[in-house]
Amino acid sequence: MTSAVSLTxxxxxxxxxxxxxxxxxxxxxxxxxxxxxxxxxxKSTTIRMLCGLLRPTSGQGKVNGLDIVxxxxxxxxxxxxxxxxxxxxxxxxxxxxxxxxxxxxxxxTRRCRHRTEEVLDLTGLQERRLSITGELPxxxxxxxxxxxxxxxxxxxxxxxxxxxxxxxxxRRSFWDLIYTLADEGVTxxxxxxxxxxxxxxxxxxxxxxxRLIAMGSPSELKRRHLGGAIYxxxxxxxxxxxxxxxxxxxxxxxxxxxxxxxxxLGRDLDARxxxxxxxxxxxxxxxxxxxxxxxxxxxxxxxxxxxxxx
Length: 310
Description:
alpha/beta
């Protein structure tokens, strides 16, 4: 089976700066693939190359079987793209935006009308079809943007921070729509900063400073990269606690999670006996402590911390 996305040793340089550094990956048709990393990690640059908008400095890649260098124009016509910044026309009605983009994608009048109706049903926007786009809540705007990207039935859709700025409930309903598309065989290539949201992906690639540092399903990443036990501790000043713990010899990594601290210790260590006197000496007595299940954010903290220490 041909991969929906295939990259081999792809590099992108801007002068002396290497934005993407020898990335290789495969994404299967119908897969929900999460592409995670901090700002400036190289996510958007990689997506721009995959969309035929940016030529790689070196390496090879294909999207839907099309070469990202030689067939860039065909790639642009074969995929859907939804940017993190809302880019539709705010003064048009919902169905007017859809028909406009249907025309841009080359649909004739009859097919455009038919697909508009289908997409309005799929996205739950039938009752808002005559609403002015600029008056829609953020969550419905996101649905409309995705709907416009679906009009020409692309085999793959790139979603760049698709749920940025929406509440958790709306985010979850948006992901229900993503699952529906995947069930229909559409490939979803998603970037997100929400680690809990990344749990919904079939597989994940973690990128940092232009390099792919881990790849696998959420459960695989946790199992493969998180040795030791994960603890949540409550202290008066979480930031001060992380600063203190970062210098502790037996703490593998530590990070702020809301008002608490997550840290990783070796399994052979008595956590309470080690941590309580250590933090008390820093003027940071522990209010509570418990063992917790690891999250993808714990994975990312562990990988980045390991790289920085090395």
